Amino acid sequence: MYPAMISPYVLQKILIANRGEIACRVIKTARRLGIATVAVYSEADADARHVRLADEAVLIGSAAPRESYLAMDKIIAAAHQTGAQAIHPGSGFLSENPKFAEACAASGLTFIGPPAAAMRAMGSKSAAKTLMAQAGIPLTPGYHGDRQEPAFLREQANRIGYPVLIKASSGGGGKGMRVVERAEDFEAALASCQREAASAFGDERVLIEKYLPRPRHIEIQVFGDIHGNIVHLFERDCSVQRRHQKVLEEAPAPGMTPARRAAMGRAAVEAARAVGYVGAGTVEFIVAPDGVFYFMEMNTRLQIEHPITEMITGLDLVEWQLRVASGEPLPLTQEQLQIHGHALEARIYAEDPAKGFLPSTGKLTHLASPEENLHVRVDTGVEEGDEIGPFYDPMIAKLIVWDASREQALARMLQALAQYRIVGVANNVDFLSRLVASPAFAQADLDTGLIEREREFLFATGAPIPREVFLVAALATLLREEARARSEASHHADPLSPWHWRDGWRLNSRAERRLLFRAGELEKAVGVRYVEGGYTLALEGRETFARGELGPNNTLWVELGGLRLNATVVVAGERRYVFLYGRAWHLARIDPLYHSGEGGGLEGGLLAPMPGNIIALLAPAGAKVEKGAPLLILEAMKMEHTITAPVAGTVKSFRFAVGDQVSDGAELVEFEPEMVA
Ligand code: MV4
User: Fold this and answer.
1) Which residue range(s) make up the domain with 575?
2) Which of 48, 114, 107 is nearest to 75 (CA)?
3) pTM for the structure as a whole
């Protein structure tokens, strides 16, 4: 749309004061524009993707954000040390801190973001609302002044009319909010809100607003330059949230009329103008079911969900930020900006939806992402083999899709989610698939309560597992056994080895075998018979001819009767992660023989079945134990789980001590099975 070139005298090298996907995102554009990049990193991020991608990287401190990604002095020193001229703060960390913007300016560095005064003006929710009221921006009816006497606030609540919402003035992210339905409950709610605000924000002041039921969260992307131009880049609908965390975002907002878009866009531009805004910003509105909108707050940074705006406008917002920071005028005028098609973003998180979205830590032992193309974009800060640690946001990636219409974009999203294969941490991919497929979301019946309301559908458990899942798990086990045996045989270079025969002689060629799998409480046995060119697999009395081939990266090509499927099966100890039909199933192989080696279950020792705390070690290291002997107790989700010896053998060592936290799948015990004759 315009030349990808930037004034070469202005920005030659920038430092990115952030980590993870947003740091990688900024590096990508800087590189395309010929600008050198400097990453900063904490000790926990020594091997992180943003460090590997950047031209240079500077270690700034330990894992705790205060010591590294929030340490202004260290970051500014790193910029001077490397000769960077400007600092991009990314999103989060220091990105909305006016003191950091000022510190950059004071040491001769360009802060790639808005002026400190604009950040400060929008930083206090109540002061921002007063300012916006003066600028004529619509606000929810309410009181956001300085007076805080309970009797006065109660009078205000009566004037506004119930239900009202009490919000902490310094709050955000939904913390310190109370809905009050009746006047007689006001005083108690006020007191509890003030207590929470004082302890969470060190500021007990509150504001009172008319409570709007079932609102939508619609935000407008704005951009300003130093020449006084301000445009908006349309809206994003971020209504689908879970406890004030965005889950799915889309642009444009379903049901938005051109007239309302223009009105909201104008209001957002006026809001930005009122604080002298420069750079990328977002003006957040809540929108009542009738479409009436009210200013909520302004985010003075580039937001996580900016890619959906990029997809529908065809623009690179980081490029705009860099141009604006270089003093260039905005590349396009309001009239030149247009919406093309529909974009959705889903946030892929290392968290467990079944356990209240508890963050999950661990190593990404297997990570296959959807293929990127004109319709699919993956912004990520991690690769297979990386660790999702406890120190930072557990986001794995943002998955962004685009198509001509919302319906097509939804289909793209489902397809792309189905291609995700993640092993090593719990994740929300299946949850997101159900969310996108839910009737409420598909019909764009959006508001901030959607996830709560659709719980039954979204957390549906106990759906039957397709028989193909067990058959594929069995087939993967058999094919791997064969591959291993073949490679062992090939080392013996014995021309008479049975592996060189082609007459159906097979490993384990006893007439019949049973492979046992467990999925939660459910146990299934798959009977195996070796037949010409494959196997006959029996499940619940039904026999199916099966054959297949192992592909790269744990993929598997399968034929089951007349059905051909592509699957991925990842083996970790006794666990089997089966990816089939766009979903993930977790099975455990129960091997009564527990011979070591492939499929034997003891590869890598005994693994934690879930994240938890070690509360007792029940056998001394070095002890010889019988099958079933209790080895240790793991406490997880307020329950105790005793880990027992799968077979007779020796406890070589414990990997953890009492009191240690362990992640899902961590090796707990180094265990040597007794030789089975
Ligand atoms: C509201 C509201 C209803 N009425 N204000 C939540 C976080 C904060 N930024 C504003 N929030 C809300 N303010 C009035 N007068 C409902 C919410 C709200 C919400 C807003 C946006 C996105 C998700 C939300 C989830 C619950 C409540």
Assistant:
1) 467-590
2) 107
3) 0.84
